[in-house]
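== Polypeptide entry ==
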Amino acid sequence: MPVILLETHISAPVHDCFDAARNLDLHMGSMNHTGERVVAGKKSGLAESGDRITWEAVHFGIRQQLTVEIGKMNPPYFFEDFMVKGAFANMHHAHFFDVMPDGTRMRDVFHFQAPFGIAGRIAEGLFLTRYMRNLLLTRNQFLKQALKG
């Protein structure tokens, strides 16, 4: 199962970074190029523990839906979301926020597994891991810019 590890430094307080990372409106803004929108669940504002949100977006020319649940949350240092329904065999995204002398270090630990057995493993290695990493990088840079960090 691929694991994507990212660190992003943001010159903003940890509370602001934590809230930005769970802000549904900022998330949609960061994924504008995929047409991502909420089609079920909380549609706007800050995601909270227990929320279930169904996103719809176009990836690889195919309109897809992904339902995630916000799991454990320890404001302003940690929250997680995980897939309950969607195209992946499984997906878990842990978000960590560390106070630094000059801002916040935002760390992503993103686990996912493609469906379709060996064909899915091949897709992960050929293009899917790189695609998912780029989506996360795009999101993080958008958040950083939104916070002017």
The mean pLDDT is 96. The beta strands are 3-10, 37-41, 52-59, 62-74, 78-85, 90-100, 103-113.
